[in-house]
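quick q for whoever's on today - can somebody do inverse folding on this one?? i tried earlier but teh output was garbage lol. tokens:
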């Protein structure tokens, strides 16, 4: 039976009724009623996504078009450190919106649609979309128009069998490589399909009219490789992949360099600057930031949750955990957090203050589980 007692006035995605009918445990998340798990539970959902294909409702995310009036990407480049001007049609790029201090307002996906010249498609986090869209409108000014897309749903099909499933409905999906995007028909319904996701696995994110979301959801679930996956497994999958969760691992006080996201800043943007907080960010690139995001492997079985204090070998506080869970793939606890830069090297011994007891741990590189993003078929 679904647990809907705590969702109150939370908004519902177009797939809410489908989740309830499947017996999902519904919880409030970023203002929406979302499935945290289904009958099989988080562990089996996590493992199934790693082995076959998991289906996620991510319709709570914010979607929008940006239509450019001037040189392609020039308006949006004023707000992000990524290279948008040179983003090729049919390609996607991960980036961040920045405040004037170089802190991260949000992370987002930016795609250039080949089918509509001058049009960008952006996806932002659910809990930040009102802030993001207001910031984008102000920053773009009259050089580009922003059109929010509240009448679209977003579902993610993730895992090693995701391609096999999707090509039964949309054979052209096989042509997409990792971080490529195209408009295509899925079971006669027009959709925007990106070969991407937030699990570390191969997969697709599919934007389509909300009125058709339940139809496509049920079509996918009828395939033998596919099971519905909730927020619980989505979080453990993304943490195993070493990916940030906004509001936990990144926020408006965190710079991309502190967060280990320096790779999103291209050579041209490093040379030219021209984005908010460029002085701080380029300075941290040239030198060393005060803190860095790191992976953490605790000894033993006790997981370190967000907020856990990280200490050095003398018991002095050097940072804190921002995300932590028990990894189903590694059968061990994992965490990520921020430490002073001198402690950020892999294999550095640290301690975790869990319930006023210091547990030994060590710094490790990420991802915890290797990424298995798409490689072109021969």
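ok took a stab at it. sequence:
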């Amino acid at each position: 039976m679904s647990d809907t007692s705590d969702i109150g006035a939370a908004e519902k995605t177009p797939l809410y009724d489908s989740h309830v009918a499947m017996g999902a445990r519904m919880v409030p998340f970023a203002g929406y009623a979302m499935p945290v798990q289904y009958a099989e539970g988080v562990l089996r959902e996590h493992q199934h996504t790693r082995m076959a294909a998991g289906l996620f409702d991510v319709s709570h995310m914010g979607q929008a078009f940006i239509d450019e009036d001037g040189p392609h990407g020039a308006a949006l480049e004023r707000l992000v450190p990524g290279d948008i001007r040179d983003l090729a049609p049919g390609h996607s790029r991960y980036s961040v919106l920045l405040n004037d201090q170089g802190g991260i307002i949000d992370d987002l996906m930016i795609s250039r649609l080949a089918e509509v010249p001058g049009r960008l498609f952006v996806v932002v986090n659910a809990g930040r979309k009102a802030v993001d869209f207001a910031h984008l409108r102000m920053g773009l000014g009259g050089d580009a128009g922003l059109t929010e897309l509240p009448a679209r749903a977003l579902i993610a099909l993730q895992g090693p069998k995701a391609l096999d499933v999707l090509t039964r409905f949309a054979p052209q999906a096989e042509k997409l490589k990792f971080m490529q995007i195209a408009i295509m028909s899925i079971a006669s319904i027009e959709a925007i399909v990106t070969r991407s996701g937030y699990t570390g696995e191969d997969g697709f994110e599919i934007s389509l009219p909300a009125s058709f979301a339940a139809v496509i959801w049920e079509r996918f679930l009828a395939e033998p490789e596919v099971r519905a996956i909730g927020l619980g497994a989505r979080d453990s999958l993304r943490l195993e992949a070493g990916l940030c969760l906004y509001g936990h691992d990144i926020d408006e006080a965190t710079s991309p360099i502190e967060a280990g996201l320096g790779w999103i800043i291209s050579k041209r943007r490093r040379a030219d600057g021209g984005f908010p907080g460029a002085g701080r960010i380029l300075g941290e690139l040239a030198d060393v930031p005060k803190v860095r995001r790191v992976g953490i492997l605790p000894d033993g079985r006790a997981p370190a949750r967000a907020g856990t204090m990280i200490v050095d070998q003398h018991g002095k506080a050097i940072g804190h955990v921002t995300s932590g869970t028990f990894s189903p793939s590694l059968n061990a606890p994992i965490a990520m957090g921020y430490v002073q830069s001198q402690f950020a090297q892999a294999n550095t011994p640290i301690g975790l203050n869990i319930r006023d007891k210091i547990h030994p741990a060590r710094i490790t590189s990420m991802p915890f589980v290797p990424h298995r993003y798409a490689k072109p078929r021969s």
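fwiw The first helix runs from residue 16 to 21. also The radius of gyration is 21 Å. so keep that in mind when u check it
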